[in-house]
Every structure is written in C-alpha cells, then in structure tokens.
TrEMBL record:
Keywords: Membrane, Transferase, Transmembrane, Transmembrane helix
Organism lineage string: Eukaryota, Metazoa, Chordata, Craniata, Vertebrata
Listed Pfam families: PIG-H
InterPro entries noted in UniProt: PIG-H, PIGH-H_dom
Keyword Transmembrane applies: yes
GO biological process terms held by the UniProt record: GPI anchor biosynthetic process
GO molecular function terms attached to this record: transferase activity
Record keyword Transcription present: no
Any one annotated GO CC term: glycosylphosphatidylinositol-N-acetylglucosaminyltransferase (GPI-GnT) complex
Span of domain Phosphatidylinositol N-acetylglucosaminyltransferase subunit H conserved: 88-157
Record-given protein name: PIGH acetylglucosaminyltransferase
Pathway(s): Glycolipid biosynthesis; glycosylphosphatidylinositol-anchor biosynthesis
Gene label: Pigh
Recorded family membership: Belongs to the PIGH family.
Entry's transmembrane regions: 40-57, 63-82
Amino acid sequence: MEERPYRSASGAPIALRHRQHSASCRELAVRCPRLQLRSLSAVTSAVWLAAYGLFVLSENSMVLSAAIFITLIGLIIYLHFVKIDQESLLVIGSLGIQVTSSYASGKESTTFIEMGQVKDVVINEAIHMQKVIYYLCILLQDPGDPQGVSEVVPLFQSSKPRLDCLIEVYKSCQEILEQRKTAPQSS
C-alpha cells in the first residue's frame, strides 16, 4: 500500500492511497483532511455569540435555546450528509468498478458499475469561476449504440484532486481496462 500527498483544486492537502490487490484489481482512495476542531469551535462560537447578542437585545431565552438546537442539528446534518472524509475507487477488471464515499459520521455511500457498461475512464475539464478544473469520470456505454455514451459518472467530486493526482488514478484505471480489452483476443 502506497500513500502519496497531493493537493485539491482549492489547495487543501489530500492523500492518494494506492493498493494493488492483484494484477487486475486495484483500489485507489483519496483522503480529505478531517474536520478541524478549531474551525468547528469558531463557527459554534460565532453562532452562539450572535444568539447571545440577540438575547441581550430581546431578553427572550428562546433565542439561546434555538441557537444551541440549530447548531447541534446543523452539525449532525453536516457530518452525516456533507463532510466526506474519503472517496475510493475499486477497479476489478473482470467484474466492475465500485465507487465509495465515506462520510465523517461513518456513513458510506457505494455505487457499483458493471465492467460491461464501462466504455472508458477519462479526464475531463470544465471551466469554473474563471479557472479550468479537471475531473475524472467514467463513460457508460449506450446499450442501443455501441459507439455512443449514455451517461458520464464523475468521480472524486468532494475531494476535487488536481491534475497530477488524477493522472495517476487515470493510468492505473487504463492499465486494467487495457488488460480487459486484450484478454479476449489472446485466449
């Protein structure tokens, strides 16, 4: 297992963990930085100070209770539905591609794509806020048209790795896809 540091499109530090289980099975995981206690404390303090200011002006204790309740509910929602700690890609040449997102609360979201549906894995580019950003995506084959693409599935949407990290993941995926393409010809 090899882990290398990279940066996201926004400049935040991320890490790419590369694990090769066999010649046709690789796992690539991008880890995002964990939630910082300092930033969590700053947001909580700001909300509670604003609530205390409103309490002083209105002399209504419900303002403080509402601020505490809203902060706790907001934190739970953020940890369970928004903050992703790790995104992984498990590529098995004979079976398919499994995409997993692990949230800060421990919840995991997994999607599996059969290898017969995969047309290719590509690096695409997009223009966002006067910047060109790159992202990795899976092209799904159109069942009605073997040359067409029915859907584009973007990968690593939360971590948004920079191009150098995406190239490493792309090369690893392409090696397995090439093995799959050459295997029927050699047998």
